[in-house]
Amino acid sequence: MPLVTQWTGVETRALREAARMTLAEFAQKLGVSDRAVAKWEAAKSEPRMVSQAALDTMLAQADANVRGRFVGLITATQSGVPQQLVEPAEDPVDASEYVRHPTDGKMMARVPGGIFLAGEAGDPVWVDEFYIDVFETTNADYSRFVAATGYQTPRHWDTDGRCPRSMYDHPVVEVSWNDATAYAEWAGKALPSAEQWEKAARGTSGAVYPWGDRPTVAKCNVRETRVEQTTSVSRYHSGVSPYGVYDMVGNVWEWCSTPTTRGRYELKGSAFSSPLFRGMPSSYNDADDFMQDDDTGFRCIALPNQISDPV
Questions:
Q1: Phi and psi angles of residue 109, each rounded to the nearest 5 degrees, phi first
Q2: Is 94 helix (H, G, I), strand (E, B) or coil?
Q3: Fewer beta carbons within 10 Å, N or C terminal of the chain?
């Protein structure tokens, strides 16, 4: 199911048009005035928290056709691709497969235990059941960790140690493997192994990319997309993995727990600075555990006994 971390006028209008409602009908459904909806869509204001929740509910209760049109409209807006040329994403996972982690509050997706086809050769590998963050760890997530522990802030934050507001929903970067591990330990989670990460990205059948075998640039933030910086972690709805996980190609490289040589660990997923082919989940990359770069971040995993009830 498509997820939206922050509703703006863009997402609001896409949902209204996907549901094929007039401004008045949509506003009545949400319990607000049509003037309020018009202001959202004109970017003159943003929905309040109660309206954000109402929009979440409307999207969750929408049928598959509406969700498909919503994803297509959002993707077309973000990529500049004509809507009729955008391939709608499949509904990858039922909402009951998502859970909310009890410590950092992040949404996580269930990855069932079993065999998947790993690596370029498609070798069968068994991975036990686990949960993985739906979105990369954001600056907002990391700021809560810093506030709770007094941990050092990333270099790209303001001189007063605060994250720029415009970057709250972007992945945190300039964090080393040690920094990422410290966050994971605070949250009661762990960094994924390279095999866990790859299964969450490709599913069981050995697809080349999270969305299938076609190298579609519009589904991710890579060099060819020409964004040239990080983007909101919920931006690329049509590029989600079979388990509903976002940004498994592009945006930022992600640290894994798998060591390669002494003091070096695997990285997965590629970044906005990388060509699309580097984002294939089977691709290999590694770095020193102290490396801090502006295109490197992370997400975490948890075991079934470490998470709360499904949302």
A1: -110, 140
A2: coil
A3: C
